[in-house]
Amino acid sequence: MSNIDELIKKLCPDGVEYKAIENLAEITTGSSNGNEAEEGGNYPFFIRSQIVKRKNEWEYDEEAIIIPGEGRIGEIYHYINGKYAIHQRVYRIHFTGNLINVKFVYYYFCVFFKKFILKKAVSATVKSIRKPMIEKFEIPIPPLEVQEEIVHILDSFTELTAELTAELTARKKQYEYYRDKLFTFGDDVPRVKLKDVATIIRGGNFQKKDFRDEGFPCIHYGQIYTKYGMKVKNTISFVEGEIFEKSKKAQKNDIIMAVTSENLKDLCKCLVWLGDEDAAISGDAVIIKHNQNPSYLAYYFYTEMFFTQKRRLAHGTKVIRVTPSNLLDIEIPLPSLEEQERIVSILDKFDKLCNDLTEGLPAEIEARKKQYEYYRDKLLTFKEIGK
User: Which residue has the higher pLDDT, 375 or 304?
Assistant: First the structure.
């Protein structure tokens, strides 16, 4: 920041000029259809999502900013330098002249373009971006030296986050590998049915509309695969006393499992309830009461061995379900409680590294993202000449 401040004082002490995109760039849409995407194609093919597809034929060979005209309006931007193709409802912004570092403008779009679009729309719902909207968007034009230094700083942040994310991905694969290996036992460890060590209770029937900011703890099945980790001491939702009394409740060390999902991966995702109070559990979830190490059982429910058994029990298409009573026939390797504790202690360390939002890699990535956003906003905010 000190280097940038010095450059601004030296090169543009009175502020910078803002210019509309229409005075700086050529804006056109593509000519390709979405069904022209080809697996393993030679060139990037931009459609209307964050995911970039591929195509064997290219339309442009240049440095540009790509903005989808429909979909998540004002939220998706791509920077490209090279050959590429774009969909008919995707805009390319190709800058002419020598005033602009395109990567600098890309970063500026990421921060300010959505605000501009929403302001222009006033109270109307923005369903698509039109060319005139892009044309009228004004960007600051500091000296190229300033633009390049800002790009260097923001690229460094982006690269660091990418490195951390890649490391997290590698650690998660390592974690999954060792988790499955730890649950691979010889003939000396008995295999039992879940019904031999546990009972299953169906959840109640309260809904999201029953949530309150305070009251009695409750867990909705949808929160199990969207809001919580594997071990939970406090809920994020609550219900009133009357609903709580009528509900099925989980007690400390019970396992709560979602038995309904939109995909097979999330089906049967579970958590261990470690709260000192009972928690009300919604329908489409079950409470597993058992006499084993709760974390050992929960970790097993995330292994490939369990996934294979779960797949056989799953039914449905758009909504996938498992009949709770059928879970009782799931086979589980059951070592001694001491061995269960040893396995849990190993996996807890991996889990903290890969999933803990207060420690480990996720926490570091989140901290870097916040730091990046803070400096990005400061670096891209300029005083306009005459104002």
Answer: 304
3-state helix, strand, coil in the chain (%, to 5): 40, 25, 35
- Rounded to whole angstroms, how far apart are CA atoms 252 and 255? 9
23 DSSP assignment: G
How do residues 290-315 score in pLDDT, each as one tens digit? 999 999 999 999 999 999 999 999 99
DSSP 365: H
pLDDT at 123: 46
- Check if the beta carbon of residue 116 is closer than 8 Å to that of residue 108: no
Considering only residues 200 and 382, tell me which one the structure prediction assigns the higher pLDDT.
200
Q: What is the 3-state secondary structure (H, E, C) of 98-121?
A: CCCCHHHHHHHHHHHHHHHHHHHH
Cα separations (Å) of 198 from 16, 256, 279, 289, 343?
69, 12, 19, 5, 20
Q: Which stretches does DSSP call E strand in 69-209?
A: 78-86, 90-95, 138-141, 191-193, 198-202
Closest to 47 measured CA to CA, from 4, 21, 78: 78
Banded pLDDT at 358 (limits 50, 70, 90): low
